[in-house]
DNA sequence: TTTAGAGGCGAACACCGTTCGTGTCAAGTA
DNA sequence: TACTTGACACGAACGGTGTTCGCCTCTAAA
């Protein structure tokens, strides 16, 4: 049974030789009594960053901590909860300025860019986030910032709630899409995003060029424009679109 | 081995008795020579609609077609391709009107509502869609509609490309989120979305009420407004936000 | 010193996507 | 008519997955 073999791997650390069977191996001095929720979250985030979402399994996390998968369940209810904890841990990296309602648009833009940066740097964490309702401490912290900014800028509370919701959806949705692309990149063995984008859009362009111009005249005619902008430009465009829409709805408009 | 038992299930149909072992079972008259890609896609969509995304496995699809999982791979490269095929199949249900650039905003709104309706009625298909680049025939059909509408209304091709991209992200992202909520609803054994929404927002409200008002003053003060609107209202608000942003950018503005 | 309980964890359960190799059959060719 | 070829069906297996059970050990309170 290969699972037995895997289980036995536990008795060795990363780079040493198996313990000789006659050494009773009376358990190492006083080691393992660690294994907290924080450690598990940190290990999970490490795997997510280094190997991507698909590599993040409970077994893999346990392996990283030199233990078996069952041990994790004393500190974490299940994988979903672990993902939520990792997500909130990442949100903790978001830096918030002092609120200044007079400059709400500028601050909101900066906030979105900051979220984009953080979610982007921990590539795959967004895949855990779309469903999770703002419930972790850092989710609340960022929520209070955005909501407060809108309210203090004079927006109606009901509308501000909708804006908070739609803005989050945009940020997470975009990050999620980005993470799927990163997974494809990884699967293709590439590592340079620029190279990936060019090869990828090249393929799309080639495919589009083979389309019948009679049924798809507009797509056919503007292939170059269709694949011109990368993820960063697309994100920025959507952001400005939202911000401008918001500006129309603010009291001073 | 339970897998053997499962495999043998194939030799019976849904509601009859096992074949006696002495009957050589010379294979049924001329049955099975079916099993096309269309059948597989249709079966998959049926499972998706009836039991949700998490129930959709290659084994489950095979079972539905009275065969083994290996048989599917002659018609479908892998699960990912199957999901893309199902997605495009669903997009086929989207009805498009004659394009009328003079009424672009109205038509774009109607289009978005139609997509929202179709993706919502096949709840979980959006979970397959976020990554898939517009490559299926129906993806192209809808893309040509939106892109043509924007171009004919006078928008710059480069910008129209960005709009097409962001609009798709919004529609799919919202549907994806909705599907995750539907999964939660299913997991909680509920079936009425209204009931689910009320119980869910009630929980959130209760949780928010326990928050310290000193650190989260704005969230704390406006709990009722935060949970007031359901998914439909949120979708509509975001849509109008986008459309208004677009209007500002159109030539006639 | 004894006891209660929390945590570690090997083994197993019931799944999953995918591949391999064999078997069957229909159509084309000699 | 007989033989060959190739497409498809599919049982079995491989190597994973999340999670649970039950036992064991060890710490801390009594």
Question: Can you tell me about this structure?
Answer:
The first copy, chain A, has 253 residues and is an all-alpha fold. Chain A has two domains: 32-76, Homeodomain-like (Arc Repressor Mutant, subunit A), CATH 1.10.10.60; 95-249, Tetracycline Repressor, domain 2 (Orthogonal Bundle), CATH 1.10.357. Chain A contains eleven helices and no strands. The first copy, chain A, has helices at 2-8, 37-51, 58-64, 79-91, 104-121, 137-152, 157-187, 193-209, 217-221, 223-226, 231-249. In chain A, helix 2 packs across helix 3, helix 5 runs parallel beside helix 7 (157-187) and helix 7 (157-187) runs antiparallel to helix 11. Residues 1-32 of chain A have low confidence and may be disordered. The interface between A and B is large, with 57 and 56 residues. The structure holds a DNA duplex (30 and 30 nucleotides). Chains A, B: InterPro entries: Homeodomain-like_sf, HTH-type_TetR-like_transc_reg, HTH_TetR, Repressor_TetR_C, Tet_transcr_reg_TetR-rel_C_sf. Chains A, B: GO terms for molecular function: DNA-binding transcription factor activity; transcription cis-regulatory region binding. Chains A, B: One of its GO terms (biological process) is negative regulation of DNA-templated transcription. Chains A, B: Residues 1-34 are annotated as: Disordered.
